[in-house]
Design brief:
Elements: E1 9-12, H1 22-35, H2 42-48, H3 53-61, H4 67-85, H5 97-103, E2 109-113, H6 117-126, E3 135-138, H7 150-159, E4 166-170, H8 173-181, E5 185-189, E6 201-203, H9 211-217
Parallel strand pairs: 1-2, 1-4, 2-3, 4-5, 5-6
Length: 218
């Protein structure tokens, strides 16, 4: 079992970090939007990365929507996403993530994601990941989603670890901005973007040989 150099928390984003779900979210948004007469171009797809659903829905469907309409669109799209990814869920996990979580089992490990609560429950139950996480924080548990620091500060508070002693694993630019604003170190995972400016360590996935030595020595 890996041993960190000092007590520090590991906080993982979900989409693009634990599960490489981007293509499934892209397909789900494209199909859902098509059903409503909206063609989803690449610029729209790029804008949705790392965002909370209320921001995405208002971007795609218009700022005039009521909160109830926004929620209904978001929930329907996520139901479609879960139907699409379910047959490929376990093979869509980011390489090495299960082994990484096993190595650090018993340490302060949390998840902090802008994703919908139903998607969080779906992943941790279907992939049997619940035992690895002490805390699960989604974007609806804080006033402001990423790129604001709220979600990471809340995770640190629940883990009872100072922000400066937290390491965040992120794939999105808003997520990196949120972690930096929270005063945390950041490991960037290149599942979504080829380059991740502002991270302390950049890795392809959790099989990286650089990851564990960096964690021990930071």
């Amino acid at each position: 079992m890996a041993s960190l150099a000092r007590k520090q928390a590991l906080i993982l984003d979900m989409d693009g970090v634990i599960i490489d779900s981007n293509r499934w979210h892209r397909q789900a948004w494209a199909e859902y939007n098509r059903r409503h007469g909206i063609e989803t171009d690449e610029a729209m797809q790029q804008r949705m990365y790392g965002k909370r659903n209320d921001d995405i829905v208002r971007d795609f469907f218009g700022a005039h929507l009521s909160d109830e309409e926004v929620y209904a669109h978001g929930a329907a799209k996520e139901q479609l996403y879960r139907e699409m990814i379910r047959p490929a869920l376990n093979e869509s996990l980011v390489p090495g993530v299960r082994e990484f979580l096993e190595r650090h089992c018993g340490e302060p490990v949390g998840m902090a994601t802008n994703a919908e609560p139903e998607n969080v429950e779906f992943l941790i139950e279907e992939a049997q990941l619940r035992p690895y996480f002490r805390v699960l924080v989604d974007g609806h548990q804080v006033p402001n989603p990423k790129p604001h620091p709220d979600i990471y500060l809340r995770a640190a508070e629940l883990l009872e670890v100072a922000p400066r002693d937290c390491v965040v694993f992120e794939d999105s630019l808003p997520g990196i901005e949120a972690a930096r604003a929270a005063g945390m170190a950041v490991v960037g995972i290149t599942t979504t973007h080829r380059e991740l400016p502002g991270v302390d360590l950049e890795i392809r996935d959790f099989n990286s040989e650089d990851l564990e030595p960096w964690l021990r020595n930071r």
